[in-house]
Amino acid sequence: MFDSLSDRLGGVFDKLRGRGALKEQDVRDAMREVRIALLEADVALPVVRRFVDQVTEKAIGQSVLRSVTPGQQVVKIVNDALVEMLGGDTTPELDLNAAPPVVIMMVGLQGSGKTTSTAKISKFLKDKQGKKVLMASLDVNRPAAQEQLKVLGEQVGVATLPIIAGQQPTEIATRALQSAKLQAVDVLLLDTAGRLHVDQQLMDEMKAVSAISSPRETLLVVDSLTGQDAVNVAQSFSGEVDLTGVVLTRMDGDARGGAALSMRAVTGKPIKFAGTGEKPEAIEIFHPSRVANRILGMGDVVSLVEKAAESVKVEEAEALAKRMEQGKFDMNDLRMQLKQMQNMGGLGMLANMMPGMKKAKAAMAASNMDDKVLVRMDAIIGSMTPKERTNPALLNAKRKIRVAKGSGTQVQDINKLIKMHQEMSKAMKQIKKMGGLKGLAAMFGK
Ligand code: GDP
Fold it and tell me: Could you tell me if 132 and 262 lie in one domain?
């Protein structure tokens, strides 16, 4: 899976990794090769462009963390962008939150692996999630399609709806629903008729089945070996029915990965499963981060950089704690602390943990602080001169107006911030009187 893309990218990063310092030109050269690698992998051109621009901008703009090489950091940036391209940090789960029987409608072109995937997902739901599953084939066009599902059902130990010759797809769907209700089935999978290409009659049939069965999930099965065609098919289907996700089959044979890499960005639809072979258990939940790792094969570097980023946060926090113990607390410190707060995901926590912070907390509450406010405060401090930051007393009316303009805020926002800074530095002085704060650094580091 992804072998040739992996090799290409591996070569690019091997060149970068050993370097102690990276010049802008190094990054640009590397990205030119990444661009070629992605295009050779048959990734859609606009997706490649966006990817390369995003990575280049980040790689050039970012300051390098201590204890990792710039090359390693670029690997991490590329990794993160790949995860994003594949669908983001969260794994798209099947949504089965509805009154049973929850219906999953399978759609796709003939030969894409639809019937096989129907059986694979049924087996997955039965074995991994303990669901009672029923499958029904609505394919009356292809002779023996219903029979094929029946055989697969026997193979994986999942019940199939008995075949009644001559019934139309909507009749079969209605019967399947009734039967699923009677048998207290948790999940009903409807394997709709395949089609050679997107044609109106079959689209209408699919819509009629959808209207009758109100599927919770409508999964489109596409063959990853068809590359950009798979993405185009997904686009034409999503124009007709409300697709909730994609099943990408034959990933086991896909050395390029263009369909997997473009699908989300082009269609907006998440890949939920990857078919990885002919056997009924050859199906995997599509975890973007794991797939990115498989493509880059550099999980070790990625976690190294993550750890380095963590330890920098701890070092910053320790430096801040030291200054606080000395009773020093200027706008730079406040800014750093606001950043810490954002990282820690919330304000209340810090304020509660610190002694002598009641007033500062009240000032925060008065300014109605939420994440947006944190961002605004950061902008305000960013608009101050270095001198004003170390000595906020300099901020007279005229300077306040300048800062407000620079940060796109109002003078009263500046006043609120100054008030908060005053309360906090008072608190810091109290802390100093109380003999400093042991363990504060550890607290910040979390
Ligand atoms: P349908 O016409 O869309 O229902 O396609 P089928 O389910 O009948 O599959 C067509 C062929 O593709 C069969 O021979 C399957 O064994 C094969 N197939 C399906 N999924 C995969 C997969 O993920 N990997 C591989 N290697 N073969 C697959």
Answer: yes
State whether 128 and 54 are in the same domain: no
Ligand-binding annotation for 193, yes or no, is: yes
Q: What pLDDT digit, counting tens, does each position of 317-336 carry?
A: 777 777 777 777 888 888 87
Which ligand 1 atom lies nearest to the CA of residue 119? 7
Q: Which two tokens mark 211?
A: 């209207």
Q: Does residue 195 have a known ligand-binding role?
A: yes
Q: 200-206: long-range contacts at Cβ-Cβ below 8 A with a sequence spacing of 24 or more?
A: 202/141, 203/240, 203/241, 205/169, 205/170, 206/105, 206/107, 206/240, 206/241
Backbone angles phi, psi at 367, to 5 degrees: -90, 10
| AA letter at 136 | A
Ligand 1 within 6 A of CB of 280: no
Residue 236 identity (one-letter amino acid):
S
- 8-state DSSP, 327: T
Is 299 a domain residue?
no
Nearest to 95 by CA among 218, 213, 279, 192: 218
Q: How many domains does the chain have?
A: 3
Q: What is the DSSP letter of 163?
A: P
Residue 296, in any domain of the structure: no
Phi-psi region of 142 (alpha: psi -120 to 50; beta: other; left: phi over 0): beta
Q: Note whether 332 and 267 are same-domain residues.
A: no
Give dist(CA 338, CA 292) in Å, integer.
32
Domain coverage including residue 435: 311-445
Give the residue whose CA is nearest to atom 19 of ligand 1: 113
387 assigned to some structural domain = yes
- Cβ of residue 110 lying under 6 Å from some atom of ligand 1: yes
Cα–ligand 1 centroid distance for 112 (angstroms): 6
pLDDT tens string 134-193:
999 999 888 789 999 999 999 999 999 999 988 999 999 999 999 999 999 999 999 998
Q: Is the CB of 195 under 6 A from ligand 1?
A: no
Cβ(79) – ligand 1 distance below 6 Å:
no
Q: Length of the chain in residues, anyone?
A: 446
CATH no. for residue 230? 3.40.50.300
The residue written with tokens 């391209």 in the block is 85
Residues 110, 246, single domain; the answer is yes
264 and 117, same domain (yes or no) = yes
